[in-house]
Amino acid sequence: MLTITADEIKSRLDAGETMHLIDVREPDEHKEFNIGGTFLPLGNIQMMLIDEIEELKSEEVICYCRSGNRSMQACLMLETFGFTNVKNLQGGMNSWKEKYP
Fold first, then answer.
1. Dist. CA 61–CA 10, nearest whole Å
2. Tally of CA atoms within 13 A in the half-sphere of 23 that contains its CB
3. pLDDT, tens digit, for every residue of 47-76?
C-alpha cells in the first residue's frame, strides 16, 4: 500500500484528472463533507461488498476516511482482494480540511 497527500490529490483534481476516490467513512461523515469519492463504508469492504468497484482492480484507487486509519485498513483489505494500485490519503479528511477549509 502506498500513501498520497492531500496536496497531490488536490493538484490532480484541479488539473481535471479523473481519479478513483473511495470514501470509507460512515454515512453521516460523508454527508457532512466529502471530496466527491465513491461512498463505500469500511464495513462493506470488510464484508466483501465491493461489486461497485470490482472493475477497478488494476486501476489506481485512493481510499480516504477521517484520519487515515480506516482507509489504511480498507487499502490492506482491497490488496488482499486483488487490487494492485491502492493508495491511502495521509491524514484523511482531517489533513484535507486543514489545507483546504
1. 15
2. 17
3. 999 999 999 999 999 999 999 999 999 999
Residue 61: which of 40, 47, 32 has the closest Cα? 40
Give the model's pLDDT for residue 81: 97
Tell me the pTM: 0.96
Q: Where are the beta strands (DSSP E) in the chain?
A: 2-4, 21-23, 38-39, 60-64, 85-89
How far is 54 from 95, CA to CA, in rounded Å?
28
Active site residue 65: yes
Q: Is 38 helix (H, G, I), strand (E, B) or coil?
A: strand
Q: Which residue has the cell 463505500?
A: 40
Q: Which of 65, 74, 77, 86 is catalytic?
A: 65
Residue 57 to residue 91: CA distance in whole angstroms: 24
DSSP 8-state symbol, 81: T
Q: Which residues pair with 86 in a beta bridge?
A: 61
Going from the C-alpha of 25 to that of each of 17, 65, 72, 77, 83, the distances in angstroms are 23, 5, 12, 15, 20
